[in-house]
């Protein structure tokens, strides 16, 4: 059956646990220079309507390492930027390649594309969600600290695509998220695609959100698409900077994550992101490994390790 990964909850808990284990195996073989080419002759189309370093590189390199090919498309150079309906693009592109990754604006765009696609579609970031990043983040947590079940993640900052996806992941994998956003930037459970509010708690003070947390994480104050609000956001978010004091009230073995790109001195201090509790480079690298497991799963189903 055709399977897409448009939001985190598109995969069940069992499927996610399978992917984390599979990512571990794929990563370990890769580190031992053992070639693994299950996707020979398969082609990935990567459609970017927003900028990217990590997502493009990890998907392109990942597809290459699995024996396949990746093609980069952007709005500027394709008919998508000249008003070709996204439904038509879905029909055509999915007749020419085996799998598609899209980074775009509204989630509705990727849903419309997927509804007209004959092949799996992966969300490489939308305004609402960033599911591949959270796959990598949770895989990184597991590598460093073991199962995330029952653990507490502190989210400090904007209730953006990363925050929404953490909240969805908490429901599927049964952990808790303590969220602290400035007034006016609160979580909207419906937009986040949540079933309820059991797995998250909101805190007015970011210090309270971080208290006792196993993982402290944040993201830029101004996401792609919101640049016009930048000056206002710099003022509104000034007290939501993750600093040493916040890390101090988290568990003593708490780790820090950021999906990157980061702005030192804004959402996080250099002391924290470059400090001993930060795992941001492992987190970035793990995009490669989890997405290889994801593409393999969407194209070939479960593989016996
Ligand atoms: N974290 C992330 O998705 O980075 P890029 O915007 O560089 O792809
Ligand atoms: N929230 C950020 C993430 C970038 C990877 C954005 O959407 O711009």
From TrEMBL:
Record GO terms (molecular function): amino acid binding; ornithine carbamoyltransferase activity
InterPro entries in the cross-refs: Asp/Orn_carbamoyltranf_P-bd (IPR006132), Asp/Orn_carbamoylTrfase (IPR006130), Asp/Orn_carbamoylTrfase_sf (IPR036901), Asp_carbamoyltransf_Asp/Orn-bd (IPR006131), Orn/put_carbamltrans (IPR002292), OTCase_ArgI (IPR024904)
Annotated Aspartate/ornithine carbamoyltransferase carbamoyl-P binding domain residues: 3-143
GO biological process: citrulline biosynthetic process; L-arginine biosynthetic process via ornithine
Highest taxon in the source lineage: Bacteria
Binding of L-ornithine, residues: 161, 219, 223-224
UniProt catalytic activity: carbamoyl phosphate + L-ornithine = L-citrulline + phosphate + H(+)
Keyword Cytoplasm carried by entry: yes
SUPFAM superfamilies for the chain: Aspartate/ornithine carbamoyltransferase (SSF53671)
Pathway note: Amino-acid biosynthesis; L-arginine biosynthesis; L-arginine from L-ornithine and carbamoyl phosphate: step 1/3
Domain Aspartate/ornithine carbamoyltransferase Asp/Orn-binding as annotated: residue spans: 149-298
A Pfam family assignment: OTCace_N
Entry EC number(s): 2.1.3.3
Positions of carbamoyl phosphate binding: 52-55, 79, 103, 130-133, 259-260, 287
Keywords per UniProt: Cytoplasm, Transferase
Subcellular location: Cytoplasm
Family under the similarity heading: Belongs to the aspartate/ornithine carbamoyltransferase superfamily. OTCase family.
Function: Reversibly catalyzes the transfer of the carbamoyl group from carbamoyl phosphate (CP) to the N(epsilon) atom of ornithine (ORN) to produce L-citrulline.
Name of the molecule in the record: Ornithine carbamoyltransferase
Species: Thiobacillus denitrificans
